[in-house]
Amino acid sequence: MAPYYKRILVILFTFQGLLITSAFNEDGDVPEEWILLHVVQGQIGAGNYSYLRLNHEGKIVLQMQSLKGDADLYVSDVTLHPSFDDYELQSVTCGQDVVYVPAHFRRPVGIGIYGHPSHLESEFEMKVYYDQTVVESPFGGGSYNPEEMKMNQKKFHSTEDEYQDEESVFWTILIGILKLILEILF
Questions:
Q1: Are 36 and 84 members of one domain?
Q2: Which of 2, 34, 73, 173 could disulfide-link to 129, CB 3.0 to 4.6 Å?
Q3: Is RNA-binding among this UniProt entry's keywords (predicted)?
Q4: Is the pTM of the predicted complex or chain greater than 0.85?
Q5: Longest pairwise C-alpha distance within the chain
Q6: How many domains is the chain partitioned into structurally?
Q7: For residue 118, what is the enclosing H or E element?
Q8: C-alpha torsion sign, points 16, 78, 103, 37
Q9: pLDDT tens digits, residue range 3-53?
């Protein structure tokens, strides 16, 4: 059951990352609430990793642009050497990669930059922003908002229902195919 919740969390963080990505306009502007902390530039060979550590507290946004080739981004608060096999958050587009690192992630956070094998060498530029849009309470969470809680519960139940519907369709098709095979054989 835990992998199911982990998958939902990854999907939610990915969706939030997509929302953040959509906040950028064509000029590359970022919201006023974001404070630029660092700019990291580098090169990575095909099939290799480069690792960074993030020590800043709070909500952090990692915005990486592949200048040449295709560099992918993997993030983890469990390991300092995340990879495509072991990560909590990822962004693996061919252009701009954005990952939202939540404030509750343990520090230091491991950042893995992977040079995709489709190019001999990849060049990247990563900007690290501090997102100050939501101030969290010192007690570990935001304020209680009953409307937001209801919305989150509805989203969770609708996702669970969609999963059960997909599973039901799968089994219906599989049973139909098995019946057809049995009719042909006997």
A1: yes
A2: 34
A3: no
A4: no
A5: 71
A6: 2
A7: none
A8: negative
A9: 655 555 555 455 455 444 444 433 357 888 899 999 999 999 999 999 999
Q: Whole domain around residue 179: which residue ranges?
A: 146-185
Please report which residue ranges of the chain form alpha helices under DSSP H: 2-22, 146-185
For residue 26, the model assigns a pLDDT of: 38
> For 47-62, what is the mean pLDDT?
94
Q: How many residues are recorded in the chain?
A: 186
pLDDT band with cut points at 50, 70 and 90 for residue 171: confident
Q: Which structure tokens are listed for 29?
A: 């502007």
Six-digit token string for 182:
């049995």
**Domain co-membership, 62 together with 125:** yes
In b/e form, how buried is each residue of 63-90, taking b as 16+ CB within 10 angstroms?
bbbbeebbbbbbbbbeeeebeeeebbbb
